[in-house]
Every structure is written in structure tokens, then in C-alpha cells.
Design goal:
Length: 263
């Protein structure tokens, strides 16, 4: 219960002190919080299912109860469940709230630009938007290149007729490696082996007939671009030590990067 005390600070001044206990405000606070949770409409949550809780609180619910279908699908996938299984959305989960915070939009200033594009001298909003456009353009250029490579690969592979000594190759596959393979293993592995062999012969013929030369720096650039594409096209400085640690082993010999690109 709240207590109020008064003390004199002088002939014309008094000090009034109010001391509150947790029980004085917590019940009304929790009531208001629950009322907000029932009325709040936040994207991603069903109306009335916003977890208006405090740190340390726990709640048990199903994904179907808590999330809209669009968000629920990728949450189910992230949890390692089958998104095509209707029962996945009905599974119960115990949630422990460990942190409460609010996301605020960053001010578009030089400090923010430098964090996103270190050393790129991005100082204005216009330059910032230009960098974003460059990244988007680079991403779709890469997607277009990959699509072209895929179409060329299948066009050449599917429409080039080659005959291989199947029995000989299967017998050869059976004896490769430390442990001999069974007939079942060979039958399972042969289609992939046949495809790789065929593409190797096609690509090597193209390289030789057109005198295609690949510079070591081209290989390193390719490996870096592949790495950055795996990371979602994030803006990364390509001179960072960990980038070179990745690229160097991959490109120890021309065949390594060549195989990575065409196989």
C-alpha cells in the first residue's frame, strides 16, 4: 500500500514523499497489458494473440493460434518441421520471454551510411539510395547470369549425343575408393557420374577449340562472388581476411574453381 510522508524544508517549503510498493501498480499494469494484447493488431500475429508480456513470463500455444498463415509457414520451416504437414501448426510450444524491446528507424545520416558501407564514402541520402540500387542491380545481374548458365548447360547436355561403354565404366566405378562398391551402389551413382563425364568432355572441347584462358584473378573473383551470393548479396568488403581464407583453398588450382563453376 502506498505511504505518504511530509517533512519541513523551511518556513515556506515542505517535502512530500510518496513510496509505492510493487503491489500498488503491478495489478493495474498487468491488466492494461493484457487488454492491449487483446486489442492490438500487429502484422504477423492474429488479432488478440499479441503476447503482451514481461521478461520472464511463459506461455504455451500452438503456431496456428499465434501466427498468420504467411508467417506461420516460414516459422514451421525454421523449426525443422514439415510445412506441408497440417499437424505441424497444431503442435504446442512453450515460450519463455527473455527480452522486451522496440525497433526504431535509424536516422539516415553519415554514421549510419558508414556502418552499412564502410570506406565507400557514402555521405548523402541520394548516394545511399544509389548504393542500394547498385546492390539490387548486381543481384539480378547475377540471377540472370545463373539462369543463362543453366539454360546453356542443359541445352548442350541434353542435345549432345554421346555413347559410353556403360558396362566398363560401371565395373570401374565398382573398384574405385577404399571400399569396393556393391552393384546397388554403382547403379545409384552411375547416372550422376555419366552426366558429369559428359559435361566434362563438352566443356573441355569448348575451352580447347576457342582457346579460352582463365586468369587466376578471374578465379578468385568468381569464388568471391559465389561466396557473397551465398550470403544474400550482403555488402561485404572483399579484402577482409576471412574472405581470403575462404577463397585461397578453393582456388589452389584452376580445376577447383572450374569444377565449382561448371559442375
Amino acid at each position: 500500500m502506498a505511504t505518504i510522508s511530509r517533512s519541513n524544508l523551511g518556513k515556506l517549503h515542505e517535502k512530500i514523499s510518496v513510496k509505492l510498493e510493487k503491489s500498488d501498480y503491478l495489478p493495474s499494469f498487468e491488466k492494461s497489458l493484457k487488454e492491449y494484447g487483446r486489442k492490438a493488431n500487429i502484422p504477423g500475429f492474429r488479432k488478440g494473440m499479441v503476447p503482451a508480456k514481461k521478461v520472464g513470463d511463459q506461455l504455451t500455444l500452438t503456431l496456428k493460434e499465434a501466427f498468420e498463415e504467411k508467417e506461420r509457414e516460414w516459422i514451421i520451416s525454421d523449426l525443422g518441421l514439415d510445412k506441408n504437414d497440417p499437424a505441424a501448426a497444431d503442435k504446442y510450444f512453450n515460450i519463455v520471454l527473455t527480452k522486451v524491446g522496440i525497433l526504431e528507424k535509424r536516422e539516415l545520416n553519415e554514421e549510419f551510411f558508414e556502418q552499412l558501407y564502410p570506406g565507400k564514402e557514402v555521405k548523402t541520402t541520394e548516394a545511399f539510395r544509389g548504393k542500394i540500387k547498385e546492390e539490387i542491380q548486381a543481384y539480378w545481374d547475377g540471377q540472370a547470369t545463373n539462369q543463362l548458365h543453366d539454360q546453356l548447360y542443359h541445352e548442350l547436355l541434353d542435345n549432345t549425343k554421346m555413347e559410353f561403354p556403360e558396362a566398363f565404366l560401371k565395373n570401374w566405378l565398382k573398384t574405385q575408393g577404399e571400399n569396393p562398391k556393391t552393384d546397388e551402389d554403382v547403379e545409384a551413382d552411375y547416372p550422376k557420374f555419366n552426366t558429369q563425364l559428359k559435361w566434362t568432355l563438352i566443356s573441355e572441347k569448348i575451352v580447347n577449340e576457342n582457346n579460352i584462358q582463365v586468369d587466376p584473378q578471374d578465379l578468385r573473383s568468381f569464388a568471391k562472388n559465389q561466396l557473397f551470393s551465398y550470403m544474400g548479396g550482403a555488402n561485404l568488403a572483399d579484402d577482409q581476411p576471412w574472405v581470403n581464407d575462404y577463397v585461397s583453398p578453393v582456388c589452389q588450382s584452376p580445376g577447383d574453381c572450374y569444377d565449382a563453376q561448371y559442375h
